[in-house]
Specification:
The chain is mainly beta and about 300 residues long. It is built from two helices and 21 strands. Helices cover about 5% and strands about 35% of the residues. This is BNR/Asp-box repeat protein.
Length: about 300
Amino acid sequence: MFILIIATVFHYQNSKEITYPQLNQLNNLQDTQAPQSEIKQLQPINIDEMIAYTLQNDKVNITYNKGNDWIKVPVEKDQLFEGEYNGDKQVLIENSYILEENRVAFLYSINQRITLIYSNDQGKTWEESLVTEPFPVMRFRKVDFPNKNFGYIIISGDRTMSQEASHVFLTHDGGKSWEETNNSGVTRLISDGGFLDELTGFLSFGTINPVKPDLYVTDDGGNSWSEAVINIPEKYHQVFVTAETPVKVGEELTVLLNQGPNGDYEGGRVKGKFVSNDNGKTWIFQKEVQPNETE
């Protein structure tokens, strides 16, 4: 009896010493299949999408077949909303995740560590990579991969009133490691941003009562940033005030300028389309874009 008690105590003490997996070393053998009792109840957020997610039961699950089968994502739901966030936690923060056939990824924060958890084999195995630490309360967040190996993460934090610090991180190995670019030097609140390729990237600033677009561009992978020149016709001064992320169409770049949070021109939803032929350094107006137009 005495021996049995000692053995029981010894087993309990050792079980308390189990540690969480280190970054890049999540257990490939973990059970990632959602329990059958939960599967029957789960409904995707976007029922028309083949690849979708759900946050039901305060857990994160993804599907590749419109909800017929579900895969559990090994991250706590609340960690995906950590930071400056005012929503109801019913849907994920826009641009904070990727759902694609060959890549799913979720950006989150825990204990001032900005982390990306991702899978390249439809949830069979998962990896985590540390983006940066320590990092203050995160506000803006965006992750994307323009190609297989190259990706970017844009985050902001440490906000005071209408000022904050924004940071850009790049990966060239599919998300395994991240390196911060040089800072743009702008302290206005960031509204959007992104990279078209390994060299060309943009940051758009101004979310509180903007009166003109504030778009910065890099053509050397973030080593240097400069303010883009946007030639806005007088008719649209203080109408089109916030730049979205530019895209490449054929041989030129295009960008949409929206009216910000207080726009009232034609109902506030009309945007201005501008084009650039010098890789985003200067922009000229092309046309108005109606809400129902293909952008």
